Protein: GNAT family N-acetyltransferase
Organism: Pseudoalteromonas viridis
Amino acid sequence: MSILPLDPSHYPAVIELGNLVHGENYLDLDGIKMMHKLGTQHGLNASFVAIDESNQVVGFRTSYSAGQWPIDKWCSPALWPVDEQHMAYFKCIAIHPDAQGQGIGPRLLKASVEVLKQQGAKAGVSHLWQQSPGNGAVKYFTKAGGKLIKVHDDRWLDLTLYEGYRCTLCDTECHCQAAEMVLEF
């Protein structure tokens, strides 16, 4: 298993994997291009892919550099342990169902954290899917040292109603909760 920086040659496989894991219309070409751009600062890319022995993308993590991402109504900066200028954002992770449980997620997170620190970030925040099978997303991030800040209801509702996203649980009207969690570096 190789962990490599995300590059444009990975986009088609990342889009396919993101939509498989997170639901139809979760990712598209414009979206992954934007994620890649927001995660690159000072010539350093904080987004990564996991490539298996057959050269297939089996996982990815996109992360945004501190100071380069929009802080929206789903963020609670007053509760964060560092100021907004030093807070990165862990945007997305997806591991192919056949590759889950092999430690790929932690390896991708570690690679992103190392680059984010080099870029000047002191912590990262994420919105984790509370309804993931067995609450695996929150468990994984907690095991990595993440701390729960706040739970947000209907985090992805607007995406399903207005942008065509189809939640794997709720279909076209998502009422899943997001756990806003912070990982200090």
